[in-house]
Amino acid sequence: QVCAQLCRRPCYCPWVPPRCPRGSPLVLDGCGCCKICARRLGEPCDFLHVCDQSQGLVCDYSSASAGTGATCNFEDDEEGCEVNGRVYRDGEVFQPSCKIQCQCLDGGFNCIPLCQEDVRLPTPDCPYPRRVEIPGKCCPEWICEAQDQHLLRDASSAVSPRLRYPCQEWGTEWSACSATCGLGFATRVSNQNRFCRLETQRRLCMARPCPALPAAFPAVS
């Protein structure tokens, strides 16, 4: 009876299919007539506006009795997270890029860097350090300009013998995270590098995930 009320035959569809946001594929509506954008995790749904089944989503009517309407959710009610239009299951580990690795946890996600986040300070043998992308490598590396390389070669004979051997490690404790929630940076000063130079190092940190903002969805037609 519901199908007979909502579905019209023959089908009358727009000439141009709708343009869908990233991560929302074109699918047939609940009547099997017109192509529409599949609804994503947490978006409103009904008989006509179907959820993205390729992501394991179904239209959850459990909250409809409270007057909030049905929303797309995982079939087994397992929490997940959506990143760049793709839905990951709770506990799933993924890499948005080769420089970072993340894990979906309780509807949010935590990430750790895979590249060293150190900061190289200018030194007499390298007054103008520069971090560059190396072809074929994911993580950038520090280099000195060509003119600095000449200074380094000219001074190589005068380098103190102590620099040829590991020095006694020294460093400060990591600072508090720069952000109270979400990703931030922690810094320290350390000589733990192959040249035994004091340098400021930094790394990503997360005190706690930021609370999710309430999403605004368009009214279901």
Automatic annotation (TrEMBL):
Belongs to the CCN family. It comes from Callaeas wilsoni (North Island kokako). Residues 1-75 form the IGFBP N-terminal domain. PANTHER family: CCN FAMILY MEMBER 5, CONNECTIVE TISSUE GROWTH FACTOR-RELATED. Coiled coil: none annotated. This is CCN family member 5. One of its GO terms (molecular function) is heparin binding. GO terms for biological process: cell adhesion; positive regulation of cell differentiation; signal transduction. May play an important role in modulating bone turnover. Promotes the adhesion of osteoblast cells and inhibits the binding of fibrinogen to integrin receptors. In addition, inhibits osteocalcin production. Keywords: Cell adhesion, Disulfide bond, Secreted, Signal. Its main location: secreted.
